[in-house]
Amino acid sequence: MTTSMYTENVTSNLSAPIAEHDFSARNYGMMLTIYVLPVIVFSGLLCNAVSCLVFTSHELRKLSSSVYIFALLVSDSGVLLGLLFVWLEAIGYRLNHINGICQALVFFTYVFSFLSVWYVVCVTVENYITICQPTQFRVMCTRKRAVTVVSAILVLSLSLYAVTAFATEVAYIEPPGIWHCSQRDELMEVLQALTYIDSVVTLLIPLLAISGMLLPIALSILRSTRWRKRLSSLPMLDGGKLRTVGETRKQVTRKSPRVRVAKMLLALSVSYIVMNAPSHVSRLYYLIRQLESGNTILTYSEAFIQLSLQYVSYLHHAIKFWIFVIISKNFSKYLRQVLSDLVHLRCLPG
Question: So where does this one cross the membrane (predicted)?
Fold first, then answer.
């Protein structure tokens, strides 16, 4: 199920006729959709665009990690554009139920959701090699290899979800007498199977893969920290000055671009787990429950909780700019250069 279709289903549970004591849940869901969602979408699109400019600057685009991050930012923006149509429908513009837009939106939302999560996996793999397998870094972490991996994942996603464009149609529903973007009845079983496949390849496997790599990364960082503490009191001669091994090593580490990039990549992976794991686990639970019991209806409380978790997940597509600003001094440096260049171009005559 695509991000936008999933949100629409959850939101509809909150906006259906409900008992008096459930009005707070419904109002909360509609408030998120109408007021919070556009803030996430528009701020995220702007920040992602600026981040893309930074990572395509002359110096940063040479790094293999920049290829993955740029691809991740583009896929995040694609997800946000899909959410834009959810918001437009909430305020009365049913553009996603127009023939052509309906099929394209479903297809590309599937594709961008897949790409977004798997490019985070790529970022985590790159960081795992950097920290846990440093001898393989020069061989495995090249820009050419990164472009190949990004392209291969793109082709895979386009192939995997191509059927969704043909399995979706705009049908007239009476009552209430409206055109609605829905699934074709004759391909319902195919789409149901794809829903479970999509849940495995975009929720379960990436979550396990990222978590599995973060554990040895954390252990490696812990061992390195302990080792530096043990060496911190040992004296050595550095440039004619008596320093401790720990002080000298800390200076070298701070200057290492690979270490600075590793911190940024680690922040991306950890933020993914923190902001997406609750929503993913919850969605997997409801899918398993649906598979076992056939119960597809969420209670108001369940929809309330799931929608809240889903919005935390949406936020992850929009905040990477701030992660870069907080974690990476290099990003902040090149951000100032990019903004200065943009101001300079704007001030040019003509």
Answer: 32-55, 67-87, 107-125, 146-173, 193-222, 264-288
Rounded Cα gap, residues 162 and 156, in angstroms: 10
d(CA 105, CA 92) in angstroms, rounded, equals 17
How far apart CA 205 and CA 261 sit, in angstroms, is 25
321 pLDDT band, cuts 50/70/90, is very high
Helices (H), 161-256: 162-166, 188-199, 205-231, 245-255
Q: Tell me the CA distances in angstroms from 51 to 29, 89, 262, 326, one per residue in order.
A: 30, 29, 18, 13
Q: Where are the alpha helices (DSSP H) in 232-256?
A: 245-255
> Among candidates 264, 278, 322, which has minimal Cα distance to 69?
264
CA distance 287 to 194: 12
Report pLDDT digits (tens) over 199-244.
Answer: 899 989 999 999 999 999 989 888 877 776 666 555 554 555 545 4
What pTM was computed for the model? 0.85
**pLDDT at 14 (0 to 100):** 39
Across the chain, the runs of DSSP E, i.e. the strands, are 168-173, 178-183, 235-238, 241-244
Q: Please give the Cα distance from 254 to 252 (Å, whole number).
A: 6
Q: At a CB cut-off of 8 Å and minimum separation 6, what does 287 contact?
A: 195, 196, 199
In tens, the pLDDT along 41-97 reads 999 999 999 999 999 987 888 899 999 999 999 999 999 999 999 999 989 899 989
Higher pLDDT, 301 or 215: 215
Report how far residue 160's alpha carbon sits from residue 240's, in angstroms, rounded to the nearest whole number.
62
Task: Enumerate the β-bridge partners of residue 179.
Answer: 172
- For tokens 């369940």, what's the residue? 302
